[in-house]
Amino acid sequence: MTARSRTQRSTAVGYVCAECGHEVAKWVGRCPHCRSWGSLSELTEPAPAIHRIATTVPAAPARRIGDVALDSATSAPTGVAELDRVLGGGLVPGVVILLAGEPGVGKSTLLLEVAAKAAQRGGPVLYLTGEESAGQVRLRAERTAAVHPELYLAAESDLGAILGHLDAVQPRLLVVDSVQTVSTAGVDGSPGGVTQVRAVAAALTAVAKTRGLPVILVGHVTKDGAVAGPRVLEHLVDVVLQFEGDRHSTLRTVRGVKNRFGPADEIGCFELRDDGIAGVADPSGLFLGNGGRREVPVAGTAVTVAVEGRRPLMAEVQALVAGTGIASPRRAVSGLDGARVAMVLAVLERRAGLRLADAEVFAATVGGMRVTEPACDLAIAMAVGSARSDFALPTELVVLGEIGLAGEVRRVAGIDRRLAEASRLGFTAALVPPSVGGDRSRRDGDVSAMNVTAVADVGEALEWLSP
């Protein structure tokens, strides 16, 4: 074998999972990342050339950063306010957005609404579907009132045909549902495989950047909730959005995971209805019992304020403590972090003397909201203590704070925004961690209508449960 043939041949560099894109050095029967069986395939790449790379003339000369026009990064609203909040204002020319979510959560419904809004503002919009027929999408559009003369629809799964549609329609927005169903004949592999997804995403990204065309890609997720396909897919796109929601609830949230043009930690709230999907500008009422603040106090409930991105959201934590002397009591959690709930229960028993080892404890949130941040620790403790003592907290009280293993109540981030949101919704009292320095006076000035009480430890907080 000559030296030339040795440098040009392809060499195996490892194995890649077709489900999640995880790479390993040697073949194994089960992917160590997503736990899928038989999904590893050989990954090859050409051996690096030993010759020096030739210098080429750049397509455009480098410019001073102050000479670069800002118009190329100006966003245009989509017409869906909650989505604009997550995107940082709207769609930037040439942006590539990946929207991932579980099947049936409402991804296609949301993007059909976005496409119809874009068509109403003028200019053609192209919606490409590789999972459904054109008739199925038309039926959904009729139901959600998303039919518009400037909205073009095509059922295609070939990348070459998609590029042909782009030349024919010349759209101002492209929606591809979904990227895992599109394939190209120039690359080996089945549709949805790592190689195909990588090639299709790279080609569509190049088209978006060349034409200044906003492109929205729908992505599948694995059983663990991660975006299916190679990890490079998330690196290629500009924005990664996670569409989340409980199938037993109409509430849906779009969470920003990556955003090159705006905040990467913002969320938008939507409500899935029979006639489509609608944004929820003030979702706090959906996460409280009975749609808002209770009129009659109920034992086992505590209200807290969670912060999702930069948005404060009211959340109600409910707890139920049942039975005594049970040999193997159950612990059931819904909408909360099970590990944090177990930690709070251990602190309550060890530091506050609350007997829970022989009782069953159930803890949950209201409205399908998931709260995992440490700021809800004190609310969990107060809800469990209230359920155990059968003494209800005042309906106008909001509880904020993280609990340490020593039983101390620690400060949480964004205390001002949390208290301001509670005050706006009519709460007049708050249990908060001890203030530091001059922050207490500043906070009291922002929410002067609230009676703010600082508690140093969980035992002091549980004194509110005494008659």
Description:
- This protein has 467 residues and is an alpha/beta fold.
- 26% of the residues lie in helices and 25% in strands.
- The strands form five sheets. It has a nine-stranded mixed sheet with strand order 6-5-7-8-4-9-10-11-12, sandwiched between helices. It has a four-stranded mixed sheet with strand order 13-14-16-15.
- Helix 8 crosses helix 9.
- The longest helix has 18 residues.
- The chain starts with a helix and ends in a 5-residue tail after the last helix.
- The N terminus is likely disordered.
The CATH architecture classification of the largest domain is: 3-Layer(aba) Sandwich
CATH superfamily of the largest domain: P-loop containing nucleotide triphosphate hydrolases
Q: Alpha-carbon distance between the termini?
A: 90 Å
Rg, Cα atoms, Å = 27 Å
Strand order of the largest sheet: 6-5-7-8-4-9-10-11-12
Arithmetic mean of pLDDT: 86
What is the CATH topology assignment of the largest domain?
Answer: Rossmann fold
- How many domains? The number is 3
Low-pLDDT residue intervals, each spanning 5 or more residues: 1-10, 436-446
Net shape? elongated
Strand content: 15-25%
Measured as a percent range, the helix fraction is 25-40%
Highest-level CATH class of the largest domain: Alpha Beta
Helix-strand blueprint:
Blueprint: H1 3-8, E1 10-17, E2 23-24, E3 40-46, H2 81-87, E4 96-101, H3 107-120, E5 125-129, H4 134-143, E6 151-155, H5 159-169, E7 173-177, H6 194-211, E8 215-219, H7 232-236, E9 239-245, E10 251-259, E11 267-273, E12 276-279, E13 301-308, E14 311-322, E15 331-334, H8 338-351, E16 360-365, H9 377-389, E17 397-399, E18 402-403, E19 409-410, H10 415-424, E20 429-432, H11 439-446, E21 451-454, H12 458-462
